[in-house]
Amino acid sequence: MRSPLPDLLADLVDLLPRDERALLLRLHSSSEGSELCTLLVGSHERDAARRLAGRLPRTIHYHQEENTLVARRSAVDHLSSALTQEECGTSSMDDPVTQIVAAQENGDHQRALTLFQENGGIYFIHFHGNDACLDVLNRFPKAMVDTEETLTMALAMHALKAGNVTHARYLMAQHFGDEMHSLETVISARGRYPLAVRQFRFLMAIYEDQPISNQLREKLFDMLAELPIDDHLHRGSFYNAMLAVCLQRRELNEAEEIAKRALYHYQQAQAHLLVFYIELHCVVFSLQRGMLSEAELRVQAAQEALERVPFDVPADRRLMSLLEGVLAYEKGEAEHLVRFVAEEFDKFAYGEIWPAVVELALVYCSQVVSRQVGLGAAISFLDKWRVQEWRSRRFNTAITMREVELLQNANRWQAAADRLMAVQSRINLTWVETAEEALSRLVDPIEIELAMAWLRHLIQHLPRRPLLRAQIEALLRNEHIGERDKGRLRLWAAYLARVHRDMTRARHLFAELLDELARIGVITHLLGDIGLVDALVDDKRVGSQVISTAERRATLRKLHGFSPGREMKSTVLTAQELRVLRLVAEGGTNKFVARQLRLAEVTVKFHLTNIYRKMGCQRRAEAVAAARSLGWL
Question: Would you say the pTM of this structure is higher than 0.85?
Fold first, then answer.
């Protein structure tokens, strides 16, 4: 009776990916006559070699220092017998990288270039991996690299994916001229630059975090018309870059439509890694919309796309880890994101950078560091990003806004105001104090963020200003405000309605907010304003009626669950006395406090006298130290 072992072995070997089966055959063919089979692997084969040794640890060993696979011949004979020579030979020679390298070794570099262009060209790295791409590019003669546009742009793409935007810019300028520094010049020069060059320059602008005007966007869509309908790879890449533009401008509805088109074209091109990048950006705009369940589905789709990639992608697996950590954090589990910041973030920060993903990381990682470690650690974390070589003015402002948010969350209001005043923008405190209907017409995301930061400052210090309520309502009418920010604005509006004793409006807005939070699932954007939530809940005229349903109570429990050790901070001080004490804690003099709170200096002295009496203190330093120990500051 025939043994079933050969058939079983054949079935098991057939489960190996094609590149690993090819390595197995070559390992069997090496070192003939020796007890040990030893194979030197190329840089583009190292990932496959590691995987093969990992799957067969008792049979095959990979020595990373020498880049060799080693196995006993008897074991390899059994394994290779499950593969016919014809099958394995086809597997090896069907591999484009193998074909290109073979052509290069034979000196047929023109044939190698043709194969390179047929198998991705500029996007070769997305189909075959970082190591294979660099190995192939390094085998071309320098003179050929200097003259062939495809090879120059492939090298620039490799630099972009390594996070080296400056080198990519240098390569393009060296080959095509200094005009490459200007996106608008290149896009407008249709007769001077081929379509592939113009499209790549657009893609590079996304890595540079360069703002795209409406006029330039029209020219870019004119460029899209030049691409054949069935050129799925390049059409997908155009929509990929335009998706980043929509996210930069917070145009989330447009981003969703653009993402659908990018996904369609990349799926048709079987560009699995590029499909992953689109799904990754879909996670970003789902979170910006506050749709947690939608973000979870997108993360699952991103994971499935990543599993189809036939080579190892450690940097992209770090991106997956970030997304999984963010979703876990939104559910109240901070450990995954804390571990990511501690173990993976430095590698992430110095790899391939998509600005939309970086902003997601800045928001969530700075918040979790601040809450789990402390404000100082979070500010240091943000400062690391200021040294990135690709940083733009817009990106530096985004970092400053994260610092402002953290400082405001920690009741460091004056320090936050100092940073806001350092931002060069027309949206300053003077503008915000007098603006009303103009707030409904703001478009730029940074200007909206600045306006909201200054309004939050005014709500803290001057909540009874009559204009504040109208200003919040104007922002709520702004169609460019995202769902997360609208949630914060509803909370502010509810709090101000309570301050002005409009309890009906306060109850309506607070109930609307809690119902919306229960629906979308994302709540971490309200953690900095938990004090306003508590003020509404603790007011019996509001809280007793609003939190009457189980869903609303569950939402509040989830919100407070992010700070299980948080003290209720009950205090004998009035709200105005707390404002005075917070400014004093930041080093403010009586005159400074009076100016900030629009009070007479004698009134500040009166409040301080009451503070000392209530706390049993005699000096400012004692009062500040006692308030911090009690959790009031």
Answer: no
The answer on pLDDT for 314 being more than 60 is yes
62 phi/psi in degrees, rounded to 5: -110, 120
Does the residue 33 lie in any domain?
yes
Domain enclosing residue 515, as ranges:
428-560
CB 354 within 8 A of CB 281: yes
Q: Is residue 122 domain-resident?
A: no
Last residue of a domain, one of 78, 94, 110: 94
**What DSSP assignment string belongs to 576-600?**
HHHHHHHHHHTT--HHHHHHHHT--
pLDDT in tens, 206-226: 888 888 999 999 999 999 999
> Count of domains in the chain?
4
pLDDT for 239: 96
The answer to whether position 456 is within a domain reads yes
Residue 203, SS3?
helix
Q: DSSP per residue over 289-315, as a string?
A: HTBHHHHHHHHHHHHHHHHT-SS--HH
Q: Assess whether 443 and 535 both reside in one domain.
A: yes
Last residue of a domain, one of 424, 455, 478: 424
Residues 434 and 545 in one domain: yes
Kindly indicate the confidence band of residue 534, based on its pLDDT and cuts at 50, 70 and 90: confident
Per-residue pLDDT of 107-160, as tens digits, reads 999 999 999 999 999 999 999 998 889 999 999 999 999 999 999 999 999 999
Q: Are 542 and 510 in contact (CB under 8 A)?
A: yes
| pLDDT score recorded for residue 631 | 65
Q: What share of the chain is helix, strand, coil (3-state, %, to 5)?
A: 75, 5, 25
Whether 84 shows a pLDDT value over 90: the answer reads: no
**432 and 337 both lie in a single domain:** no
Residue 172 lies in a domain: no
CA distance 302 to 465: 48
